[in-house]
Specification:
Elements: H1 3-35, H2 39-49, H3 53-70, H4 72-81, H5 83-102, H6 109-139, H7 159-183, H8 186-217, H9 220-224, H10 230-240, H11 242-247, H12 251-273, E1 276-278, E2 288-289, H13 297-324
Helix pairs in contact: 1-2, 1-3, 1-6, 1-7, 1-12, 3-4, 5-6, 6-7, 7-8, 7-12, 8-10, 10-12
């Protein structure tokens, strides 16, 4: 396996890890106004993700950094083509981070209500836009022979990509509801259980529709053959399994299923793209691949040595964080953040 493929796989793993971890805290933020009936409720909900949300975003920063260093042409075309959408996402993430820090600085209900709305918006916008972005990546965008994006902002808001946005929004919200059912106190856990139960079937329907639309709007399933393979089928099966598990109160297993759905969906997307990284809708020969968009072999070699040294440390640190802050958040605890 050459280093170009190794780094394509590593970036795929980083984005997958980011969506698994950040997906549930997007979902928690989206459900904050719905499940938080009082200030104490909202504080408990925020505290369930308080120790984790910024650590989860490290995966995104690492994925972006790896893309910039390993595939600079991919990074340049993606960020210039998706510029407005990515700026919107960045602003939403900044507002969300500020809201977590500022909310508890004043007890005025209007102040806290303002920042609660910012947490909701800052969670909703990226959860939607990530699906739009990956929908466009697999559908293809107008890229010319010089690797330049020649479309506009509105090209990105096509029906298939918007359906991808609704899919990611639905899966992350369900993922967040299951996380709250596991982490919050009994009262909020019951509300999260009810939401997860109601959301499971609509979520499954949206994702199925997105998968079927993929047969017509993209070439990833054609390239994989009529049978899309175990990852695509597995992502559907694991999502179908969520509803009966939630009905039986098996929230831990249901959370494992949504985690597998995200992992298998991302595997399908990256597998369908390979060896391309961005598909040109103007001419397939103008698509960016892991070879024409990559850095020099020397750069990839140095990056591989650094990654093999530092990535295990980051994984151990993050695993330790989740271990330290395991357990439910209750009303008897000191509810500050």
């Amino acid at each position: 396996m050459d280093l170009n493929t190794v780094w394509f796989l590593l970036i795929g793993v980083l984005f997958t890890g980011f969506f698994v971890l950040e997906g549930f805290d997007y979902g928690v933020g989206i459900l904050l106004p719905l499940l938080g009936k009082s200030d104490d409720d909202r504080r408990i909900i925020i505290n369930t993700i308080g120790p984790f949300w910024d650590g989860n975003e490290v995966w995104l920063i690492t994925a972006g950094g790896a893309m910039f260093a390993a595939f600079p042409h991919w990074y340049a075309t993606l960020f210039s083509g998706f510029y407005l959408a990515l700026v919107l996402m960045l602003l939403a993430l900044i507002v969300r981070g500020v809201a977590f820090e500022f909310r508890s600085k004043d007890k005025d209900p209007r102040w806290r209500s303002l920042w609660d709305r910012m947490i909701f918006i800052g969670s909703l916008v990226p959860a939607l836009l990530w699906g739009v972005a990956f929908g466009n990546l697999v559908r293809g965008v107008p890229i010319d022979a010089d690797m330049n994006y020649v479309g506009g902002f509105w090209n990105l808001l096509n029906p298939y990509a918007l359906l991808g946005g609704l899919s990611s929004l639905a899966v992350f919200t369900l993922h967040g509801a299951l996380f709250l059912a596991l982490k919050a106190d009994e009262e909020i856990s019951e509300r999260a259980h009810a939401i997860a139960l109601r959301l499971s079937i609509p979520c499954m329907a949206i994702v199925l529709l997105f998968g079927i639309a993929g047969y017509f709007a993209t070439d990833i399933f054609i390239r994989l053959g009529v049978n899309p393979g175990i990852s695509a089928v597995g992502s559907v099966v694991t999502l179908i399994a969520v509803y009966p598990l939630v009905r039986r109160g098996r929230h831990g297993w249901a959370f494992v299923m949504t985690t597998l759905t995200i992992i298998l969906s991302m595997t399908t997307i990256f597998r369908g793209l390979y060896p391309r990284v961005m598909v040109s809708s103007l001419n397939p020969d103008w698509s960016l691949t892991i070879y024409n968009a990559s850095s020099s072999p020397y750069t990839l070699k140095v990056m591989t040595i650094i990654a093999l040294t530092l990535v295990p440390i980051v994984l151990i640190y993050q695993g330790w964080t989740y271990w330290v802050f395991r357990g439910r958040i209750t009303r008897e605890q000191h509810l500050e953040y």
